[in-house]
Amino acid sequence: MTVVYALVLGFTAGILSGMFGVGGGVLFVPTLSLVVGLSHLSAEATSLAAIIPVVAVGAWQQNRYGNVRWRPALVIGIASAGGVAGGVGLATWLSEGVLERLFACLLLVVAVRLAWTARR
Q1: pLDDT band at 22 (very low <50, low <70, confident <90, very high)
Q2: pTM over cut 0.85
């Protein structure tokens, strides 16, 4: 049954990513934690790994449309690698509870921003 949940989650996140240009992490992490039963840290890592094919397909398709600027993309990608290394160190240093609360705060900020934007 876990595989079915993961397939439904992946398909849903893929559709939303394609429609709105957003990452599926907001869906992946809570679902992997609550439904599949992964720890929060494992859910974050699994979510990041699952995003790789989505990014590859999205970049390939957008490149076909002529929308990708490769030089800034490479600069941002290389710079973000340092941030990822720091984030991994921080995530493994923090307790599971603190990590969950920080992610909940992030979700609240995203929800408030969405509501504020929709209000306009």
Answers
A1: low
A2: no
